[in-house]
Amino acid sequence: MLDVLTRADLRAQGLTAREITAAVARAELVRVRRGHYVQRGAPDALLRAARIGGRLGCLSLLAVLGVFVFDSSVLHVHMQHGDSRMRSGTQTARPLPRRQHRKRVVLHWRSLTAPPSSGCVDIVDALIHAVGCQTPRHAVATLDSALNQGLLDSEQLDEVFGALPRRFHVLRELLDGRAQSGTETLVRLMLRGLGCTFDLQVAFPGVGSVDLVADGWLVIECDSKTHHSDWGQQRADYRRDRALAALGYCVLRLTAEDILYRPELVLDAIRGLVRTARRTA
């Protein structure tokens, strides 16, 4: 689904010129530019990258794969020497300072560590580029997400950090593939900055697993709209919180929106609770 097929590829699969034309008419194939096609249902980001003449990469590819990225609104495309000329609506970026996220398209020209497919770069290269295109904390959340989903193993992680400048190597000790969402990673980094001890995905009898436990008493749950929007789920959450309170735990329930876009307020809330607990200890 992430391949871009040339007319020669389709002919090699046994399709005649007339059959290719008919497949396009039936929308089984989408013609993205002259002599290049993608299958029906391919992600819109792949179509846009192919129309530009490059390969889907960096944050855009990771978002398609379901990996956490902070902002996937800008299309990231990898270009190689010899690729087709850029189509309209694109701007060249070489290399990739953060200010270029204001543009609709970011073009990557950095050499790749692995051969790309016809439609996208290898996930290792996507992660290498993603580290440079995000803040350090968001980069850690992206790497955590790839680890958690099994899209990145230890050998590939070595490749990622082997290709990154030395200043990024400190991020590796911050990684934890147990985090089940990017927001969990971001809160974990806040706890680390406050000097708290913490554990992830802690199981309680009769309650189930919680996202984080800090300093042995503070349970933090990172809620997204997708999983906590209906009343039935909210009622179940309240009952979990009540059961945890009966076990002696304080519960702080945070929204993904606040964690992502109002992190200073989240940090203030955690700091206030931790300070109070430390004063009364």
What count of domains describes the coordinates? 3
Low-confidence stretches: 88-102
Q: Can you list the strand order of the major beta sheet? A: 7-8-9-10
Largest sheet: 4 strands, mixed
Mean pLDDT score, rounded?
Answer: 91
CA radius of gyration is 23 Å
- Succession of helices and strands: EHHEEHEHEEHHHHEEEHHEHH
Distance between the first and last residues' Cα = 56 Å
Describe the secondary-structure layout:
Elements: E1 5-6, H1 7-12, H2 17-25, E2 29-33, E3 36-39, H3 44-52, E4 55-56, H4 58-64, E5 75-78, E6 105-108, H5 123-133, H6 136-148, H7 154-163, H8 182-193, E7 198-204, E8 208-214, E9 218-223, H9 225-228, H10 231-246, E10 250-255, H11 256-261, H12 263-280
Parallel strand pairs: 5-6, 9-10
Antiparallel strand pairs: 1-3, 2-3, 4-5, 7-8, 8-9
Helix pairs in contact: 4-5, 5-6, 5-7, 6-8
Could you walk me through the main structural features you see in this protein, from its secondary elements to its overall organization?
- By secondary structure, the protein is α+β, with helices and mostly antiparallel strands.
- It has helices at residues 7-12, 17-25, 44-52, 58-64, 123-133, 136-148, 154-163, 182-193, 225-228, 231-246, 256-261, 263-280, and strands spanning 5-6, 29-33, 36-39, 55-56, 75-78, 105-108, 198-204, 208-214, 218-223, 250-255.
- It has a four-stranded mixed beta sheet with strand order 7-8-9-10, sandwiched between helices. The protein has a three-stranded antiparallel beta sheet with strand order 1-3-2.
- It is elongated.
